[in-house]
């Protein structure tokens, strides 16, 4: 039996017949771990193949017995197009991921079955029902037991097409209640962790450079300390995302560095305390941001800042104020997004109830379009301000100055292998998708 697992992508990143993946943005292609876990959940006897549209075109003549499609909200229109084409050939299509979990009825209009929640606890039953001709429309089981998580077969993805780093996962979910976060909504604001010894056994034979795909690796500081302590003898170099609270725990930070941490994504989100409070992101204190970034730099850790523009306390003054902070702190890379009320989140329900959702085209829920009515500015002002910050942050002279300053706190391999490629790739990606450069009005 053949199981074809497809990851759709936006039109401007699709690899079509006769084209090749973009080398300039290869560093962003690293998140196939979720598909590998889905493949690992398939029962024995299934020949599983993974097709990533950013790497290769879809063969719609593929003779798979089951076609699985995993997608996020902005990929939903493309996912439905793919599903409809395969179903028109009589193929059985199952779907899963963030968007189908939040909008199962919608997804069911384009699929034979919908996986709601994690695949590991649903897929075996879905396939068994398919084999016995009793496939149901919806499958929703309890979260899987991370103590028995199968080790993914990384040979299923095409080598050389992704960032030169192995991806791993020690934990899932986040206990915080941020109202805009689809991750927290998907995992019902719960945090789970794998046994440390199982994580160590998995990552030990992997390459020296690792990327933890955890949503918030340090949610449980005591677990993180145990993990980092066990990693020290392995002499890895790793990167992940976590809360800014790591800066407040000296022991946790020391163990992170000793275990090989060289870069962290921090969801700073906003320089407005009002925004953070309304989002219920109570773990962040704006007054400590600069101190926290400088403390991580002093420990030899690069910082990628996540910033969200457009909530109610933001105004046109927000953009230059934020850029000034980012440059003053020499933040090593920036992921700036436009606030997006994803279905299933408290923010979506809030804005829907207020009549502020102005765009129901899921393809625009990509962090680049304004899909709601802002309070402190117009649609165009929000979009242009967001683009202006990214344009200035990734301008060539600014990137050059940032890299020069990094010599004071980052080691040479991190600069050469990570921060330089990351900055240049962000610049290329933002030019490709049309974000750079729009004037600030």
Which short descriptors sum up this protein?
441 residues; alpha/beta; Rossmann fold; six-stranded parallel β-sheet; 16 helices
Task: Draw up the topology in text.
Elements: E1 2-7, H1 33-41, E2 47-52, E3 66-70, H2 76-88, E4 92-96, H3 98-102, H4 104-108, E5 113-115, H5 123-131, E6 138-139, E7 166-168, E8 171-173, H6 182-186, E9 191-193, H7 196-203, E10 209-212, H8 221-231, E11 237-242, H9 250-258, E12 261-269, H10 273-278, H11 289-298, E13 302-309, H12 318-328, E14 333-338, H13 346-353, H14 379-393, H15 396-406, H16 412-432
Parallel strand pairs: 1-2, 1-3, 3-4, 4-5, 5-6, 7-10, 10-11, 11-12, 12-13, 13-14
Antiparallel strand pairs: 8-9
Helix pairs in contact: 7-8, 8-9, 12-14
What is the global morphology?
globular
Structural class: alpha/beta
Q: List unreliable stretches of 5+ residues.
A: none
What would you call the quaternary organization?
single chain
Total of DSSP H or I helical runs spanning 4+ residues: 16
User: What is the number of domains?
Assistant: 2
| Top CATH class of the largest domain | Alpha Beta
Structural summary, described in words:
With 441 residues, the protein is α/β, with parallel strands linked by helices. The protein folds into two domains: 2-146, Cobalamin-binding domain (Rossmann fold); 164-432, pyruvate-formate lyase- activating enzyme. It is built from 16 helices and 14 strands. It has helices at residues 33-41, 76-88, 98-102, 104-108, 123-131, 182-186, 196-203, 221-231, 250-258, 273-278, 289-298, 318-328, 346-353, 379-393, 396-406, 412-432, and strands at residues 2-7, 47-52, 66-70, 92-96, 113-115, 138-139, 166-168, 171-173, 191-193, 209-212, 237-242, 261-269, 302-309, 333-338. The strands form three sheets. It has a six-stranded parallel β-sheet with strand order 2-1-3-4-5-6, sandwiched between helices. Helix 8 links the parallel strand 10 and strand 11 (237-242). The longest helix has 21 residues, at 412-432.
């Amino acid at each position: 039996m053949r199981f074809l697992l497809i990851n759709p992508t936006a039109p401007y990143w699709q690899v079509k017949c006769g084209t090749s993946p973009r080398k300039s943005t290869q560093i962003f292609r690293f998140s196939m771990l979720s598909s590998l876990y889905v493949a690992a959940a398939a029962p024995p006897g299934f020949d599983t193949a993974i097709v990533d549209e950013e790497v290769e075109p879809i063969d719609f003549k593929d003779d798979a017995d089951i076609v699985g499609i995993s997608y996020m909200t902005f990929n939903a229109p493309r996912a439905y197009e793919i599903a409809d084409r395969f179903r028109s050939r009589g193929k059985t299509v199952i779907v899963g991921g963030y968007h189908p979990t939040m909008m199962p009825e919608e997804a069911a209009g384009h699929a034979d079955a919908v996986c709601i929640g994690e695949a590991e606890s649903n897929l075996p039953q879905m396939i068994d029902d398919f084999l016995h001709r009793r496939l149901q429309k919806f499958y929703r089981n309890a979260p899987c037991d991370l103590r028995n998580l199968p080790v993914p077969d990384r040979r299923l993805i095409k080598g050389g097409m992704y960032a030169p780093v192995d991806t791993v996962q020690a934990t899932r979910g986040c206990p915080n209640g941020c109202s805009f976060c689809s991750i927290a909504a998907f995992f019902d604001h719960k945090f789970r962790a794998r046994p440390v010894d199982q994580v160590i056994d998995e990552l030990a034979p992997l390459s020296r450079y690792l990327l933890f795909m955890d949503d918030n690796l340090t949610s449980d500081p005591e677990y993180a300390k145990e993990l980092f302590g066990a990693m020290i003898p392995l002499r890895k170099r790793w990167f992940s995302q976590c809360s800014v609270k790591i800066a407040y725990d000296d022991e946790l930070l020391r163990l992170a560095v000793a275990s090989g941490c060289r870069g962290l994504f921090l969801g700073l989100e906003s320089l407005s305390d009002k925004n953070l409070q309304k989002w219920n992101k109570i773990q962040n204190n704006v007054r400590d941001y600069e101190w926290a970034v400088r403390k991580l730099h002093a420990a030899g850790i690069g910082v990628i800042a996540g910033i969200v523009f457009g909530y109610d306390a933001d105004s046109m003054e927000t953009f230059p104020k934020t850029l000034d902070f980012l440059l003053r702190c020499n933040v090593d890379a920036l992921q700036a997004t436009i606030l997006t009320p994803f279905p299933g989140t408290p923010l979506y329900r809030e804005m829907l109830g207020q009549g502020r959702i102005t765009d129901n085209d899921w393809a625009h829920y990509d962090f680049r379009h304004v899909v709601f009515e802002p309070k402190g500015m117009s649609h165009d002002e929000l979009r242009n301000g967001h683009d202006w910050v990214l344009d200035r942050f990734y301008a060539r002279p600014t990137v050059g100055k940032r890299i020069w300053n990094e010599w004071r706190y980052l080691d040479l391999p991190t600069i050469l292998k990570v921060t330089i490629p990351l900055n240049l790739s962000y610049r290329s990606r933002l030019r490709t998708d049309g974000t750079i450069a729009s004037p600030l009005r």
